[in-house]
Amino acid sequence: MSMNISGKTKIFGVMGFPVIHSLSPVMHNAAIAAMGLDYVYVPLPIPVADLVAAIAGLKAVQSVQGFNLTIPHKVEVIPLLDEVLPIAKSVGAVNTVKRIEERWVGTNTDVEGFIAPLRQMDCDWTKMPAVILGSGGAAKAVVAACLELGCPMIHVVGRDRKKMKKFYGEMTSQLRDYNLRVHPWASLPHLLEVTGILINATPVGMASDPNTPISTAEMALLPNNAIVYDLIYTPRPTKFLKIAAARGLTAIDGLEMLINQGAIALEFWLDQPVPIEIMRQALLKQL
């Protein structure tokens, strides 16, 4: 894709560490080119220790109009912003930031992005308990999404007891009228036996990590009608989803979530509709 960069070009980007694996630049730049806009979307690799300096520094760069956030910055960025919109407050995580005048305003597009492929399925979500692996910023969005779907119980499983206790406190202080439970990893086998939808919200299994968050034996504990959803989209499929597919389970990767949350973010930045199908085709071609 050819691109004309000038002194007037405005900048969007994705901030995380690492971001070398990110496909966000592919889909966003495809949409921007199709719309004929003088913008470019770039990776912004920012280590945790440099996040404060990065947020302040980017504000001084007038051409930077907004950015996405990925692991590990979705929660830590919140106190560094000038305003956080209600959806992001309720989730407790920000994945999209927009410059409005001289202020950074944060929102969350992960919730609707996560739900998008599930809305197309013929499921009675009130009979589908959710089990979420991990307790980071992505897991917070998934909890909110499962609440919106109507899942009767939402179980979050993690290895760090202190982190799990903090996660529970943060979520229950923001969201009401739902059944959320947090569990140590040792409880996972029992939970898997009654799971309706299992979601991997950990980074385990990314392109740089050949592992899987649960074993083949643990996957075998899931009911035959269970849905397995991995937020990771590279490699495609992940080992986690290969195991699920081998068992004959419905397997969903993070590609549709990536596309839909990205389209919502781009609309938030530009205040106009964006060509989501062009974003999808650009990603499929890349993969």
Walk me through this protein's architecture:
- The chain has 11 helices and 12 strands.
- It is α/β, with parallel strands linked by helices and 287 residues long.
- Strands 2-1-3-5-6-4 form a 6-stranded mixed sheet.
- Helix 8 links the parallel strand 10 and strand 11.
- Helix 4 (110-119) packs across helix 5.
- The longest helix has 16 residues, at 255-270.
- The two termini are 16 Å apart.
- The model has no long low-confidence stretch (mean pLDDT 94).
Q: For the terminal residues, how far apart are their CA atoms?
A: 16 Å
Rg calculated over all Cα atoms: 19 Å
Helical region count? Answer: 11
Q: Indicate the percent of residues in helices.
A: 25-40%
Which regions contain 5 or more consecutive residues with pLDDT less than 50? Answer: none
- The proportion of residues in beta strands is 15-25%
Report strand order across the widest sheet: 2-1-3-5-6-4
Helix and strand succession? EHEHEEHEEHEHEHEHEHEHEHH
User: Mean pLDDT, nearest integer?
Assistant: 94
Largest sheet: 6 strands, mixed
Overall 3D form:
globular
Structural class computed from helices and strand pairing: alpha/beta
How many strand segments?
Answer: 12
Features:
globular; 12 strands; SDH_C; NADP; EC 1.1.1.25; six-stranded parallel beta sheet; six-stranded mixed beta sheet; amino-acid biosynthesis; alpha/beta; 287 residues; aromatic amino acid biosynthesis; 38% helix
Could you give the topology of this structure?
Blueprint: E1 10-16, H1 24-35, E2 39-45, H2 51-60, E3 64-69, E4 83-84, H3 86-91, E5 96-100, E6 103-107, H4 110-119, E7 130-133, H5 137-149, E8 154-158, H6 161-174, E9 180-184, H7 188-192, E10 197-200, H8 216-219, E11 227-230, H9 239-246, E12 250-252, H10 255-270, H11 276-286
Parallel strand pairs: 1-2, 1-3, 4-6, 7-8, 7-10, 8-9, 10-11, 11-12
Antiparallel strand pairs: 3-5, 5-6
Helix pairs in contact: 1-11, 4-5, 4-10, 10-11
